[in-house]
Design goal:
By secondary structure, the protein is mainly α. The protein has one domain: MetI-like (MetI-like fold, Orthogonal Bundle), CATH 1.10.3720.10. The protein is 79% helix and 0% strand. The chain contains 11 helices and no strands. Helix 4 crosses helix 5 and helix 7 runs antiparallel to helix 9. It is elongated and about 65 Å long.
Length: 231
Amino acid sequence: MLGATAGWLADPAHWQGPDGIPARLLEHLAISAPAILVALLVAFPIGAYIGHTGRYARLAVNAAFLGRAIPSYAVLVLVLPISLRFDPDIGLDVIPTFTAMVVLAIPPILVGTHAGLRGVDRDLVESARGMGFGERQLLFGVELPVALPVVLGGLRTAAVQVVATATLGAVVAYGGLGRYIVDGIARNEDDRLFAGVVLVAGLALVVEGLLALAQRRLTSPGLRGDPIGAA
């Protein structure tokens, strides 16, 4: 099976055309990247607010965990009838897949942002407040720089989960690398199936590695500096 999978991946025919690996990879990234971005735009402000103020934290975090408990496939099934009525052209594949990925990405970003901010040393926060820092200065000049490793950790978790789970889009006729897995099962072609698994796992590892590198560089002491002094 390893040889058959390697042979399938090495076949030049599988690197060309609309069903080729580059095209499927672009489709996979085209649904994953916007989903992560939208989830970041939704979850980060909420996480920053509840982490900074402490207000509604239990409600927001519990809601995030509740959303995480809902399987992505269930989100696909729930959204599908609504999206088909909303737009028959993209309601079958794009909208359900995108929605499921956004729902999947929100909890780790929100919880990571909240946990990072709440984990900042309170003495540091009170010292900055005593120096005359306003709430906005306190959040962006003190708390976020210190909490950045945890915040980026939540984003990293969300990105890897979305990349790995976007394969479900193939179940509702979306493309992406999951297409090889679904088609491999349907056609009883194990080499196509396992090639899809390898490609998805490889992409997830690449994303994990790149984000880990970015997290290390962005949170290094030389780049972050002294939060109070920098502010």
